[in-house]
Amino acid sequence: MTRAVTIIGLLLTILIGTGTYWVSHEVERLEKRYADIQSDILAEQETIHVLQAEWSYLNNPERIER
């Protein structure tokens, strides 16, 4: 009986350790993906800002009249 409990405890410990490692690795991967997406969003926002400024310049009535 003691031997079976010891083996089950050892297996559970290994299983929990492996699961914890996997979750930790997955969190790191998702954090990197999140940081990459945030970087992409900032780049797109900057592009939108530049395009809005260009659109305002191109639609300026004084510039169009020339």
Per-chain topology:
Elements: H1 2-58, H2 61-65
General description of the model:
It is a single chain. The chain has one domain (2-65). The longest helix is centred in the middle third of the chain and has 57 residues, at 2-58. The chain is mainly alpha-helical and 66 residues long. The chain is rod-shaped. It has helices at residues 2-58, 61-65. Keywords: Membrane, Transmembrane, Transmembrane helix.
Uncertain segments are: none
- Element order, helices and strands? HH
Query: How many DSSP E strands?
Result: 0
Fraction in helix: over 70%
Rg over CA atoms: 28 Å
Indicate the overall shape: rod-shaped
Helix count, DSSP H or I runs of 4 or more residues? 2
Mean pLDDT: 95
- How many domains? 1
- State the end-to-end distance: 96 Å
Strand content: under 5%
Structural class: mainly alpha
Q: Summarize the main sheet.
A: none
